[in-house]
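Key idea: predict the complex, not the pieces.
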Amino acid sequence: MKYWRVPLDLGTIPASRGKVMVIEERCKGCEYCIEFCPREVLQMSRAFNPKGYHFPEVGDESKCVNCHFCEVLCPEFAIFSLAEPAVA
Amino acid sequence: MSTKKKKPDAPHPHDELLRTDRMPHIWCTGCGIGTVFSCVLSAVEKSGTPLDDVAMVSGIGCTGRMAGYLKLDSFHTTHGRAIPFATGLKLARPQGCVIVASGDGDLLAIGGNHFIHAARRNLDLTVICVNNFNYGMTGGQLAPSTPFGARTTTSTQGCSEEPFNFCALAAACGAVYVARWTSLHIRRLTTSIGEAMNKRGFSFVEVLTPCPTSFGRHNKMRKPLELLKFYHERSVIRNYIDPKDAVLDFKKNLVVGKFVDIERPTFLDNYRLLNRGELGDWPDLEPKLPRPEKQASG
Amino acid sequence: MAGKAVLTGTYFMNGDEACCEGALAVGCRFFAGYPITPATEVAERMSWRLPEVGGIYIQMEDELASMAAILGASWGGVKAMTSTSGPGFSLMMENIGLGLCTETPCVVCNVQRAGPSTGLPTLVAQGDMMQARWGAHGHYEIIAIVPSSPQEMFDFTIRAFNLSEQYRLPVLIMADEVVGHMNERVVIPPADQIQVVSRKKPSVPPDQYRPYQPGPDGVAPMADFGDGYHMHVTGLTHDERGYPVMDAATQEQMINRIVSKIRDHAHQIISYDAIAMDDAEAAVVAYGISVRSARRAVAEARGRGIRAGLIKLNTVWPFPEEMIRDLAGRVRALVMPEINLGQMVRELERAAAGRCRVRLVPHAGGSIIRPGAIVQAVESALKEA
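Result:
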């Protein structure tokens, strides 16, 4: 996240963690999730789905904070995140 | 070469409200209708309304197909007639929450007459207008929302008409809740749809939505991302301003926000007054003015 | 303001009002309409009677919206109707088509007036008969009932609702201005003597329910909004699950379903009365207000020693082809008076298939047919046969 200042409670609040799941055959390669993920977790994969679209894949898993933005933004219901144990 | 497909072990959170056996859906790459649909589903889940009592009615066009993917009572009616159909559905089952989801052409061109009257009557409907500024399903023709000068397949030299301001129109006709967002204002849009659903009376939510295949391609914004970012960067949130001033100017900015949130008795509130004979009688008109006495004729 | 739905008793009322009372008696609790001569009286009476019985009257912005609204109300689980005349009937066609495709029970009463276009708004005609059959686009079957008196406006409206609920489609009442505006005795029976048919409800749990899987009688049980079946209803060609499927196979299955559910039960739907037909050489086949002219004509002809009889059609669609084909073999002439220049007579000719003389007594509209014209037609038809 591009913070314009460091939050005062950065040390004490455990950062939430998420695991991104991609339903590849639903993706139509619009790249919205890649563009608008606030943590820049996703990148375009070189693989194709059955319809011939490239779909997103997770780059650095640890950066995902389970904000669900990719999930609610995706027009194809092809991506979502699940909570992982928070990290101090 | 595709890597081994690892199926996610958990279903998508929206899957239980979706007819997943009909997925992937019909809408093009980058079309915003799916996002609006996702916001509707989130709003329905958050509203806590019992699912048996939620129905969606949609007309004809790209957005018209939304009802077909919703795993609730859903009705896909004729072009422009979603609102009158929903009128009958709601009045037959007043405890139901009826959502009308259709496009700019369906609701405001062929369906315009029904739109203004349902708003005038303040029927308890939640009307979601997915405005992609053209008729998408039929390949991108001119619509009553197409901006001045925009290219479509029936305005190849540029649209020479001024579009409606849907929010001003809805407010002028008597809608009690009017809001406009882009399909990237996801949290605000979901909240707005929730508010519209809970609102008693005619609630209208307009969503500016990217249509890369038709509108974007004909107006120098072919890539979905280009179009979506254009809408988002150009939009300016100005809540509670007079919807007449909430202008969509593609050269300057696209004014979004919540413009109207008022209270007004709904059609059924007044109809129940009528049933109880409490509508109040017609006021006595002013007593006739005394007739000027005839001047003593000469 | 609780009022009775069944106003048991004897009244002197016009056909429009009787139609309203028939609808209320059989359980109609929603009316969406738009004022149009000569059908306005149905709406007017509905506007104060429906609130009395806990129903809802709504005056929509046009007839098109009225038709859409009654479809919505029907899916909301309520018996619904609208009434109109020619111009409104034309506007309703697309949504009547939606009602046929989605198999939605409802009733449309068309109090016909002289057309085309604005025509003679206050005067009679029977010129919408083919529009009733083929007015909506695409191929389908329809049920059209033709009352010939205010009493039948009451009785046939009840039958129209029952047929619409039983076969799940819009049923048309093809009345006309004279039947709608004439005042006659109307007897409303006690409630327990009125047969009320309601749509079959699904008996399987939601996950096994297929909204368009026909039952043994070819009609699918119908879940309403709020019943918890979460079904999809669409005007697109759809399969038994109600899902849109864009191919010829599904189209064939759907069209055959909505056609055969009517054709296979034509005998139960078709209704006619044979009057003075035992020794008849010539039969006057009439419907609607023309039945009244025909009754008089048959009596006059009998007075002159002409052995004429009357076939009073109570339903025109589906058309009683078999009855007419068999009748054409037993009489020398069929004479059809109708207030148009030849519409139902084409069906008569088709069914008679040349086995006897078929003669039309035309009338362009604006008044009813003179019985004398029918008697002349019978005489000349018999002379030539």
